[in-house]
Write a structure and sequence with these properties.
Elements: H1 3-9, E1 16-18, E2 21-23, E3 30-36, H2 51-63, E4 68-72, H3 85-99, E5 107-110, H4 114-123, E6 127-130, H5 140-145, E7 150-154, H6 172-190, E8 197-200, H7 209-216, H8 219-223, E9 230-231, H9 238-243, H10 251-263, E10 268-271, H11 274-288
Parallel strand pairs: 3-4, 3-10, 4-5, 5-6, 6-7, 7-8, 9-10
Antiparallel strand pairs: 1-2
The protein binds pterin-6-yl-methyl-monophosphate.
Length: 290
């Protein structure tokens, strides 16, 4: 299918349809609460490896106002070692299994592996969040096509092992957009309707601080694809560049960026500190709409 036909088929409504749900755009971005069941993620690594603690944390994120929970079993921080499939399955499936029936909100699985995605969908996840947009595992689009799950496609230059070595773009916004449109076309060609797809420019994935800032300013261009846009900026390293703060001191910076992203129309924010960001956004929008 060519790009013009694909554009013509797109609704431009930015609604997101998956698993018998249809999420329309709303005045505030929806919040994806982060649950990393990894020993080595950059900010919360090791905190939620025990299944019961992970489940309690997911329930707390829901109570704090998360709209969905993202469960990941492989760290993608710069330089992280890859995790083999059996270990990733061992980390995420029991958690998703326990959350099914306890959570009212949908679960996404943060994985680049089609088998992990497939098992997670069986266990109760309704969304696949693939930070490689199907580039790591060519079977990912097929697994998604065989389900009615939501699909998040993210841009990354290189791999987590190499991506921060020398990120380079001639025009970061144009190149990220082109990649995301091509990956969306590939998923559509495999049988995933575009209404099920969300796009993410991949903050921190093979980007300098300047690249990240350009992408954070490009929400309108990203949304011109017709698809909802997710941003994962929470506690990330560009905030060190902006504020000089280490990872445990980046909540205020994350909140400031969240408000700017809400103002420019981002549809979903992937965040650690759900309650603080929910409160900040609600206070901001109450004043704005008064
Ligand atoms: N960032 C991380 C992991 N998964 N998924 C999406 N869609 N977007 C992101 O920006 C993203 C992601 C790395 O951050 P973490 O270690 O805090 O989970």
């Amino acid at each position: 299918m060519n790009a013009h036909l694909l554009r013509a088929l797109m609704t431009q409504s930015h609604s997101w349809s998956f698993a018998n749900r249809c999420w329309q755009p709303q005045s505030l971005p929806r919040l994806m609460g982060i649950l990393n069941v990894t020993p080595d993620s950059f900010s919360d690594g090791g905190s939620w490896c025990d299944v019961s603690r992970a489940v309690d944390h997911a329930l707390a994120l829901e109570a704090d106002g998360a709209d969905l929970i993202d469960v990941g079993g492989e760290s993608t921080r710069p330089g992280a070692e890859p995790v083999d499939e059996s270990e990733e399955l061992r980390r995420v499936i029991p958690v998703i299994d326990r959350l099914r029936g306890q959570l009212q909100i949908p679960i996404s699985v943060d994985t680049m592996k089609s088998r992990v995605a497939a098992e997670a969908l069986i266990a109760g996840a309704q969304i696949v969040n693939d930070v490689s947009a199907g580039m790591f595992d060519a079977n990912m689009a097929h697994v998604c096509a065989n389900s009615d799950c939501g699909v998040i496609l993210m841009h990354m230059q290189g791999t987590p092992q190499t991506m921060q070595q020398e990120p380079h773009y001639d025009d970061v916004v144009a190149e990220v957009l082109q990649f995301l449109e091509e990956r969306m076309q590939a998923f559509v060609a495999s049988g995933v309707s575009c209404e099920r797809i969300v796009l993410d420019p991949g903050i921190g994935f093979g980007k300098t601080a300047a690249h990240n800032l350009s992408l954070l300013k490009a929400i309108p261009q990203l949304r011109a694809t017709g698809r909802p846009v997710l941003i994962g900026h929470s506690r990330k390293r560009f905030l060190k560049h902006l504020l000089g703060r280490d990872v445990e001191e980046r909540q205020a910076g994350t909140i400031g960026v969240s408000i700017a992203l809400a103002e420019s129309g981002a549809d979903l924010l992937r965040v650690h500190d759900v309650r603080a960001i929910r409160d900040a956004l609600q206070a901001w929008v109450s004043l704005r709409d008064r």
